[in-house]
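Here is the promised in-class demo. Please do not try to memorize the tokens; focus on the logic of going from shape to residues.
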């Protein structure tokens, strides 16, 4: 994205007045080697620094709102929750084994 693209994106999508945009390219190193002793270079990427207009603050929008935890009886979510509870109960260690792992037979 160019500086103009970044500025237009923030103003249109987030309704944030942008004062200035600075960009730079972050060059990555190629010091790492793979199993064939070949140099491996991570890809370069672009970094943008945004300065808002004076007296402006930015608040990230809530992308994933919290759902209510009350489940309807017989719903798929309720059955999945019950299944997960049963699996967690089943995977608990047996207290009679005294800390001995399951794979070690007595």
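The designed amino acids, position by position:
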């Amino acid at each position: 994205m160019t500086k103009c693209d970044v500025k237009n994106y923030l103003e249109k999508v987030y309704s944030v007045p942008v004062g200035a945009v600075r960009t730079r390219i972050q060059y990555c190193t190629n010091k790492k080697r793979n199993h064939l002793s070949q140099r491996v270079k991570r890809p370069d990427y672009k970094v943008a620094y945004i300065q808002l207009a004076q007296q402006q603050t930015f608040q990230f929008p809530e992308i994933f709102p919290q759902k209510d935890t009350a489940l309807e009886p017989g719903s798929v979510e309720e059955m999945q929750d019950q299944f997960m509870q049963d699996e967690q109960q089943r995977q608990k260690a047996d207290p009679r084994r005294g800390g001995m792992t399951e794979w070690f037979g007595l």
